[in-house]
Amino acid sequence: MTIGERLLNLRKERNISQEELADILGVSRQTISKWELDQTTPDFDKLVPLCEYFGITSDELLTGKKNYVEEKTKDKKTSFAALLSISIALYIISIIFVVLFAAVFAQPIIGVCLFLITVAIATGLIIFNAIVNKSDKKEKVQKKENEKVTLICEILDIICLIAYFVISFLTGAWYITWVIFLVMGLLNTAVKLIFSYSKKEEVEVEDEE
């Protein structure tokens, strides 16, 4: 595919006319037409505005090759955001389970069980996502992992604290609901151990190489 064909496709994707693109770039409509027909090529001073407008790199425009590193990074960020959103939604649903089964069905035990299962799934998604989306650089990996561990632990602490008060108020079983704090401590420890073990394996692999 030629530069002109790429420009034509990009313009059609944006659903703009040659006149509109010409006005944006400060050139004539005939100039845009010549570019798209490969009769001439964009001047150097027009390459940057073209790339900025269409949201592409100069390599993409001139050669058609995408920056796969950037694409991969974007995909990872999208995946992380999606799984994090799902996990947060599951945390909220877990609280609903407790309230629903305790207040409506008078089955607080079932609500607590569903709460713990849902929290476990949500936490598992976050941990899995954090492990998969490691950075290639060691310093960035360590920093990001520490941030993710802290984030996960903080979320767990908040969820467990909310669960403690909700379950305690609904059931009146203050004498036993303190067990939730033990669960919270175990979950935090598990998260840290998982990340620590993952980091240890990475170091061992690098040493073998």
Describe, in plain words, how this protein is organized in 3D:
This protein is mainly alpha-helical. The protein folds into two domains: 3-63, 434 Repressor (Amino-terminal Domain), CATH 1.10.260.40; 68-208, no CATH class. It contains ten helices and no strands. Helix 7 packs antiparallel against helix 8 (138-171). The longest helix has 37 residues, at 68-104. It is elongated, with a radius of gyration of 27 Å. The chain starts with a helix and ends with a helix.
Primary descriptors:
10 helices, mainly alpha, 209 residues, 2 domains, 84% helix, elongated, 434 Repressor (Amino-terminal Domain)
Strand content: under 5%
Q: How many beta-strand elements?
A: 0
**Count of domain modules:** 2
Report on the biggest sheet.
none
How far apart are the first and last residues' alpha carbons, in Å? 42 Å
How would you describe the shape? elongated
The helix count comes to 10
Report helical residue fraction.
over 70%
Q: Which regions contain 5 or more consecutive residues with pLDDT less than 50?
A: none
Rg over C-alpha atoms, rounded to the nearest angstrom? 27 Å
**Strand pairing plus helix content: what structural class?**
mainly alpha
Mean pLDDT: 77
Order of helices and strands, N to C? HHHHHHHHHH
